[in-house]
Design brief:
The protein has about 550 residues and is mainly beta. The chain has 4 domains: about 20-70, no CATH class; about 95-385; about 385-440, no CATH class; about 465-550, Immunoglobulin-like (Sandwich), CATH 2.60.40. The chain contains 4 helices and 54 strands. A hairpin with a 4-residue loop joins strand 50 (about 495-500) and strand 51. The chain is globular.
């Protein structure tokens, strides 16, 4: 359980005191009743429990959240379940629906979303867990799992489906796993086992800090087991995209399917995905329109935009600092496959240990630079050397890895500098501050985890700023298994809060980010650690303070 929480005297959770909090089931019997009673700006706060319902936001700018929102305890996410397996009509089987012009002020946070079967539009089914049409939302800190679309024709978005209309979309800090699409139709597409999003305008889609794991599509024609990004202004960053699969006669990309545009794909760990071609990433550029119904299918972008893309290499900054390992294809391009005349540009990649009968690492032509490619690849400063991974879970690099400081030397691509060790990179980047190849290098470098972090920052009123820096004694102490750590910051800056065993070995990194001045508390769960004395250390600029705590099992 991880949560940074600013202590407030006059503001709760960043919401105005004028807004109402509707408690479910105390004030209203179920979540939909809470939404019905809410007005813009209100919060529908849902107690732990299983809620068998399919909810609709009805166009309201409200927050619907579990008690994770109030105390940061991630157990609420698993224990507050919206189960959409018994819809009032089988054609409306999405668990959560946004179809009335909602925007990013409509927030869904802190639930397990499960049992959805998608909503019918025309002859297809869309959005097993979450269905967004001509609207948008903020989807944050949820577990979206075991939603399944079983449809004889086309189906999009086993976990999340979004068709945007003049609105941005935020999908961050979610665990999106074990969602599925199954179809028998040989002429229609099935897209986006985990996430499908489409926009033909200037909307921005942010998919960040998610864990997109073990989603599947089984159909004759299928693409994008993990993500199908049908929008040019896409930011896919700091995600773990793992174990997603396409089981199809025709199709590609177990991880990310890119069609006729190059979204920003940075600092992702793309591992163990599988497909007929392009196991990790498939780039496909064609002038044909696969679907033009307005539903937002693969190839439904504007023809003029497609034509312009044909004549140019893409910006290498768009695709950078990804680790693409252990993916597989039954045809070609286990790691990356490129189809069509456009030459995508990329840099600072690690592409290693992928498998396919033909071109197991990269199949097709890329403008590739400063990357470590098994088997080698032509391009500026590319290498072919074992990257020396420290583990096979998060694929951090050993300190003697050739990928450290091996990326593009332009200062704009530098790793973040360690404020406590000037001239050196801030972990998980290593070495000097020159760009490391792979997911942990470059300006977007940050640790990745299989867990929901639940880290949020809430503004503090200027009249209550601490007079100095201070790290307080944890409580309770001794503890089993969780404890609270509080600290105060006199001014804004980069802050770290780490846990060490008595040998000085780091066992947990709790905070590593820029924080505003204020007072904070952090609930830490030491589950899995042995009894004993542990040290916790706060670093803020030149201020460093360490205290002891005792874990008793």
């Amino acid at each position: 359980m991880k949560f940074v929480h600013v202590i407030l005297s006059c503001v709760l959770l960043g919401f105005s005191l004028k807004a109402n909090i509707i408690n479910v089931p105390v004030d209203q019997p179920d979540i939909q009743a809470g939404i019905n009673a809410a007005s813009d700006g209100d919060t529908v706060l849902v107690a732990d429990g299983i809620y068998i319902e399919n909810i609709n936001y009805l166009g309201k700018a409200i927050t619907v959240a579990s008690h994770f929102l109030t105390d940061g305890d991630t157990s609420h996410i698993a224990n507050t379940v919206i189960d959409g397996s018994q819809p009032s009509h089988p054609d409306s089987g999405a668990v959560v629906t946004f179809i009335s012009g909602e925007d990013t002020t409509s927030v869904l946070a802190g639930f397990t979303i499960t049992g959805g079967s998608g909503t019918v539009i025309a002859n297809g089914k869309y959005g097993g867990g979450i269905h967004i049409f001509n609207s948008t939302a903020t989807i944050r800190n949820n577990i979206i799992e075991f939603n399944a679309i079983n449809q004889p024709t086309d189906a999009y978005g086993g976990g999340i489906y979004a068709f945007l209309q003049s609105q941005d979309l935020i999908i961050e800090n979610n665990l999106i796993r074990h969602n599925s699409i199954t179809s028998t139709n040989v002429t229609e597409y099935c897209l986006g086992g985990g996430i499908y999003t489409y926009s033909d305008g200037n909307e921005t889609v942010r998919i960040a800090n998610n864990r997109i794991i073990n989603n599947t599509i089984t159909a004759p024609v299928a693409y994008g087991g993990g993500i199908e990004p049908g929008a040019a202004n896409f930011l896919i960053t700091n995600n773990i995209i793992k174990g997603n699969s396409i089981n199809a006669t025709q199709g590609g990309s177990g991880g990310i399917d890119v069609f006729n545009q190059i979204p920003v794909i940075q600092n992702n760990l793309i591992i163990g995905n599988s497909a007929p071609t392009g196991g990790g990433i498939l780039f496909e550029f064609t002038s044909s329109a696969a679907k033009t119904t307005g539903m937002g299918g693969r190839g439904a972008g504007k023809p003029a935009a497609n034509a312009a893309l044909k004549t140019n290499r893409t910006n290498p900054l768009n695709v950078s600092n990804n680790t693409i390992v252990g993916n597989s294809a039954t045809e070609s391009g286990g790691g990356i496959r490129i189809i069509g005349a456009t030459i995508p540009s990329a840099m600072n990649l690690i592409v290693w240990g992928n498998t396919a009968p033909s071109d197991p690492q990269i199949s097709g032509i890329m403008d590739l630079q400063y990357s470590d490619i098994e088997g080698g690849y032509l391009g500026t400063a590319n290498i072919e050397t074992d990257p020396l991974f420290a583990d096979t879970t998060f694929y951090y690099l050993l300190s003697n890895s050739p990928c450290i400081d091996g990326g593009n030397l332009d200062p704009v691509y530098n790793d973040p500098e360690d404020p406590l060790n000037p001239g050196f990179a801030r972990w998980p980047a290593q070495g000097l501050f020159f760009n490391d190849m792979g997911a942990y290098g470059g300006p977007g470098s940050k640790p990745l985890s299989d867990n929901l972090t639940g880290i949020e920052e809430i503004p503090i009123s200027s009249g209550n700023l601490p007079a100095g820096f201070q790290l307080f004694q944890n409580y309770p102490n001794p503890f089993n298994p969780s404890t609270t750590i509080e600290f105060a910051l006199a001014k804004a800056g980069w802050v770290t809060l780490n846990i060490y065993n008595i040998l000085g070995e780091e066992v947990a990194e709790l905070v590593s980010e820029n924080l505003s001045a204020g007072s904070y508390k952090y609930n830490w769960d030491a589950g899995g650690l042995a009894s004993g004395v542990y040290l916790y250390q706060l670093g803020a600029g030149r201020f460093v303070q360490t205290r002891k705590m005792l874990l008793i099992r």
